[in-house]
Amino acid sequence: MGKLDPITWFWKADVMGFWALKTVEIFLRKSLVISLFASLTACQSEDKVSSIPYYNSPDFSPQFLDKVEAKGRIKHHIDHFYLKDHHGKTFSQDHVKGKIHLAQFIFTRCGNICPEMISQMKIVAKKFSSNPQVEMLSYSVTPWIDDVPTLKKFAEEKKIDAPNWHLLTGSKSVIYNLARKSYFAEEELGYTKDSTEFLHTEHMILVDREGRIRGIYNGTLPLEAEQCVKDMEKLLSEN
């Protein structure tokens, strides 16, 4: 067996125990969200309050609000950015404006978690690849390695051909800041970190047409991807 490079080794180290704990954590969080929504809708009309929560902070405390309340109370939005996709085209916040999008953070040399994350994103792509109101974004967390040609080759090898699925590369600081400060990709654990610390997350983050976070999912699990698809369908129907 060949010697592992440091990045791949980092991802493999103690991976089974780590991801088992993360899976339990997300399951418990979603159970709490369902319970909170059930309690809320017992007192309020469901046609006013969205069944898809809003998230305003990296602790991912769910807020079930109607559209008017959300405009006043949800201040957090995904920040502006300019990157390159795997076709070499400039990709920015303008490309997702007015659409819902799903984001994940991967790297092409990852041999453990990322292939599973790509497989689950394909579940989403199968459903929404022809929907002009949906974008799927895979940000590289090793952009110094994953340049445009590398991402293009990776897309070809993995048969990533949905027109609205973009593999993105560019400035490391921009991607890491987006992941941690905008998407809360590592939750509170990563919010205070900077780009000198390697970005490590299995999460997929769902964002609505206004750039507000509406969901977090374990991107390695088929059931989570299927739930994500259901939530995306609800978001599309609400607007």
Structure notes:
It contains 8 helices and 9 strands. The chain has helices at residues 6-12, 15-41, 67-73, 113-128, 148-157, 172-182, 187-191, 222-238, and strands at residues 54-55, 62-63, 82-85, 90-92, 100-106, 134-140, 165-169, 203-207, 213-218. It is globular and about 45 Å long. Helix 4 runs parallel beside helix 8 (222-238). The chain has 239 residues and is an alpha+beta fold. The termini are far apart. The chain is 42% helix and 17% strand.
Index terms:
two-stranded antiparallel ribbon; 8 helices; single chain; 9 strands; alpha+beta; globular; 7-stranded mixed beta sheet; 239 residues
What's the quick description here?
By secondary structure, the chain is α+β, with helices and mostly antiparallel strands. It has helices spanning about 5-10, 15-40, 65-75, 115-130, 150-155, 170-180, 185-190, 220-239; strands spanning about 55, 60-65, 80-85, 90, 100-105, 135-140, 165-170, 205, 215-220.
